[in-house]
Write the structure tokens for this entry.
Amino acid sequence: MGQARRRRDADRQAGQIGSPIPAAGLQGDHRGTCIACLRPTDTGLAFQGEAEWIFAGLLGLGVPEDQVHPALADLDPAGWGNGLVPVGKTAVTVRACAECASKPGFPVALLLPGHPVPAVQPA
Ligand SMILES: [Zn+2]
């Protein structure tokens, strides 16, 4: 794990992204797209637990390992920025399509203001 973390940090510093990703949307970024397949979606879920669990959850959705930490840093720079991970239990809401979430058996729901998001926690 330690070596993988260092490699991810090195990749980030070099501005590299591990694998080809679709072109960014009209807003110039991937907002509004599934965190795993990067296709537009209105659904998502929340991972709740220790950093390692959230990391594993994103892997389960199909996010490439070298992109999990950068994705989390984008979502929560205070917790995951600069190669860090949050200490103790935390929660991260991610946008994920039903197709990607169905592979590990995670629930998704429409991401709407005031609408509860399904929480995925370690068994
Ligand atoms: Zn997807």
